[in-house]
Specification:
The complex is a heterodimer of chains A (334) and B (251). Chain A is mainly α. Chain A contains 15 helices and no strands. Chain A has one domain: ABC transporter involved in vitamin B12 uptake, BtuC. In chain A, helix 3 crosses helix 12, helix 4 packs antiparallel against helix 5 and helix 4 packs across helix 11. The two termini of chain A are 15 Å apart. The mean pLDDT of chain A is 90. Chain B has one domain: P-loop containing nucleotide triphosphate hydrolases (Rossmann fold). Chain B contains nine helices and ten strands. The radius of gyration of chain B is 19 Å and the shape is globular. Classes of the chains: A mainly alpha (334), B alpha/beta (251). The interface between A and B is large, with 37 and 51 residues.
Chain lengths: 334, 251
């Protein structure tokens, strides 16, 4: 390509990180939710924390290809950090507590990642599961600190900025607070994904051997990614603890780890908005299915997952892409 | 002769009882055009894996520009200037051709760990990648995903990625393997047009290519060096003809 006009491929790459036309839509919807469904804000808070949690998993699983079934380890670490510090009267200012939750989760992520990420496939999957189980058992046994099986309730959370009271009955403050935190974390992930670092993570996912052969320090990159992902999951867990004012073993359980994985698969992994679409689809579906068939609602969810796995390999976003691509007229070759 | 770029001294590796590489002494000079031939299972790819650090030798040494790199890890050797292609494509299939090359160049320039400025805005990386694709006549495919390309063009991307590493030594493991003969000349032209300062070691079964391209040939048999010399000497060596060229239908 001579002259000043960049090659279309280079131009496409240079503009890829630009904000797309559809990108404000989820944010407008999330904000609209606050006004339209004031009675469902508790559900909304749950939704926002799950989106953030799924986003953190997407970074590790969707972008870097780290197969994990133990991501709740970091969610729980964050939740317990916030809960224990507040309950034992050590520290409870909301925003700095979240940062501490991120730090604690990042520390666990870094320490476990250094060992785990030397493995791959099934071994890695089992080791992530084990890490989570160990933490869960530690939380169960450390009753004096963690409240054991019962967890910690009535965790005192002071007003945000000293002004806005967290109320369990009318979680307006919680909702906007979670939305704000999610937005900041999302901007961070979005920047990361389009950066050279993010590109190299995609490279590792697409072909690890080739990344070694281009001289990339693959293990160090994966540990960095895993640590960041853990920190974000820790923030999600911290938010959950703050908005519910309690912490229990469910934050560290396999149930939660599996749910977030399902959400990501449902929405579409390796895609920035997969976490959003998956979380909305999952929580809305389980909500309505549970109303329709209180005894067998999980059956409906299971069937949907089977359909997604069979026919929409990249979740709802992937399905949308395929339909959009088949409707678009084919470009004639130059 | 000055210090060779890449050298092995009595290099050996065993897989259990199997000796895959046996006391190999091998030298690759600056700007060399060297071919490595031998029957299937002779240990050609194993030798490349030893040179690039994928495998650790059981005994012997690997030297690069005179210094011992036997214990240096694979990624570090790439940074020193040793690059390779694979016998079977190892590409980032879901990404565009341009991105494939950008990833390699970003690693070489040390840009890859950066987390903020978008990758597509790293002008130095993208420009260099486009220029490289231009020289390999791949520019028209730059925006295509690897999975959309015919195999022959994928092989060219394999070459483009390694050239993006600006290596001093390039190890080509059957660059035209799997490419239909109607397309293979594209690969061979690209190999022939490689910058003269790169020392090239090529493995291939295509004797026409080997004898046209190579200025020196090493014949491996059973993991050991069986013969080494100029193409003329190798072609005239009756033992080689008996053991190898005869089988390949050149005798």
């Amino acid at each position: 390509m001579t002259g000043t006009a960049p090659h279309p491929a280079a131009a496409a790459l240079a503009n890829r990180h630009r904000i797309g036309l559809c990108e404000p839509i989820p944010w407008i919807l999330l904000l609209a939710f606050y006004f339209v469904f004031p009675r469902y804000l508790g559900f909304g808070v749950e939704l926002l924390t799950m989106i953030l949690f799924a986003l953190s998993l997407d970074l590790a699983l969707g972008y870097a290809g780290i197969v994990t079934l133990g991501h709740a380890a970091f969610f729980g670490t964050g939740a317990y950090t916030v809960g224990m510090l507040a309950k034992h009267g050590i520290w409870n200012e909301p925003i700095s507590s979240l940062l501490l939750a991120a730090l604690a989760a990042a520390a666990i992520g870094f320490a476990s990642g250094r060992v785990l990420l030397r493995t791959s496939g099934l071994t890695l999957l089992m080791l992530t599961l084990c890490t989570m189980a160990l933490l869960e058992e530690a939380a169960n046994l450390g009753q004096a600190y963690t409240g054991g099986f019962d967890g910690l309730d009535n965790v005192p959370i002071p007003p945000l900025f000293g002004l806005f009271e967290f109320s369990p009955l009318f979680p307006k403050v919680q909702y906007l607070y979670c939305l704000g935190v999610l937005f900041i974390c999302f901007l961070f992930v979005r920047t990361l994904v389009y950066s050279p670092f993010g590109q190299s993570l995609t490279g590792i996912r697409e072909n690890t051997l080739r990344m070694h052969a281009v001289g990339a320090p693959v293990d160090a990159r994966l540990v960095t990614c895993y640590t960041i992902s853990a920190a974000l999951a820790g923030i999600a867990g911290g938010l959950w603890a703050q908005s519910n004012a309690y912490v229990n073993l469910s934050t560290l359980g396999l149930d939660r780890a599996a749910t977030v994985l399902i959400i990501l698969v449902l929405g579409g992994y390796g895609r920035l908005y997969g976490a959003f679409i998956g979380a909305v689809a999952y929580l809305a579906l389980s909500h309505f299915l549970a109303k329709l068939y209180p005894t067998a609602w999980q059956l409906g969810l299971g069937l949907l997952l089977v359909l997604i796995a069979l026919f929409a390999r990249n979740g709802i976003i992937g399905l949308y892409d395929r339909i959009a691509a088949s409707l678009r007229p084919k470009r004639a070759p130059p | 002769m000055s210090t060779p770029l890449l050298e092995t001294r009595r290099l050996s590796i065993n897989f259990g009882a199997l000796v895959a590489t046996r006391n190999v002494d091998f030298k690759l000079g600056v700007g060399a055009r060297h071919a490595l031939i031998g029957p299937n299972g002779a240990g050609k790819t194993t030798l490349i894996n030893l040179l690039t650090g994928v495998l650790k030798p059981t005994a012997g040494q690997v030297l690069f520009k005179g210094s011992d790199i036997t214990t240096v890890a694979q990624a570090e050797r790439v940074k020193l200037g040793i690059a390779r292609t694979f016998q079977i494509n190892r590409l980032f299939r879901g990404l565009s051709v341009l991105e494939n090359v950008c990833i390699a160049i970003a690693e070489r320039l040390g840009v890859a760990p950066h987390m903020f400025k978008p990758a597509g805005r790293r002008q130095e990386v993208v420009d260099e990648a486009m220029a490289l694709l231009e020289t390999l006549k791949l520019a028209n495919d730059a925006s295509h995903r690897i999975a959309e390309l015919p195999y022959g063009r994928q092989r060219l991307v394999e070459l483009a990625i390694t050239l993006g590493l600006k290596p001093d030594v390039l190890l080509l493991d059957e660059p035209a393997a799997g490419v239909p003969s109607t397309e293979s000349h594209i690969i061979l032209d690209a190999v022939a047009a490689l910058p003269r300062e790169i020392g090239v070691l090529i493995i291939d079964h295509d004797m026409d290519l080997v004898f046209r391209f190579a200025e020196r040939i090493t014949v491996l048999v059973g993991g050991a060096v069986f013969a080494e010399g100029t193409p003329k000497e190798i072609a005239a060596n009756p033992d080689v003809r008996a053991i190898y060229l005869g089988q390949a239908g050149h005798g």
